Amino acid sequence: MNKWEEKRTRPVLPIYLAALVWPVGALLLPTYRLSSVLIIAGASAVVYGLGSKFCPTRVIKKQVPYATGSEDVDAMLSGISANLDKLHVLNDAIPDAELSAAMTRMEKAGRSIAAAVEQSPDKARTVDRFARYYLPEVIKLMTTYASMEKNGVKGENADQILAELRRNAATTAKAFENQLDALYSAEAMDISTDIEVLDGILKSQNLTK
Fold first, then answer.
1. N or C end: fewer C-beta atoms under 10 angstroms in the chain?
2. Which of 72 and 59 is assigned the larger pLDDT?
3. How many of the other CB atoms lie within 10 Å of CB of 125?
4. Structural domain span for residue 86
5. 105, 121, 112, 117: which is closest to 175 by C-alpha?
6. Could you tell me the pTM of the whole model?
């Protein structure tokens, strides 16, 4: 029952190289002179800058457990996350630009759905069908597509299947986005009600003129 989180780590090599400049500089220059200290400090800064350029910040992905307080919701989120990881891998393996763009939309919406449910576990029941049927079915179809592309399958039937998958991808992406939007329908109604109440109070106190 895990999800992926990214952690950025700065490389330590540039720091070590910059620090090494000081003892080396001390051997070459008289450190009792201010000018020498400034030269060494400048060289250390340059070395650190170059080291940072050639040793960029690393992004490390690690799995952390879901902890919504409900084992069922945690399991659902784990399944969604695993399928979205598969979708990402399949997307990398599919060369079709239009289909890839639709799959990127699916993954983005899916990640947002998982984040919304994690924040408000009571929303899990509204995405049950998405988690148990729609997303796994997409993985199944896209796996078939990737396999046919990889194996170079040709023929009338194959072409028809591939064409249908391409045609339906954008529709599926829109459905995922609609599922995400539906999660916030209750909040939208609450906000609308709050705005109406606030507007009524302001008008009753003649504060809107």
1. C
2. 72
3. 12
4. 66-195
5. 105
6. 0.63
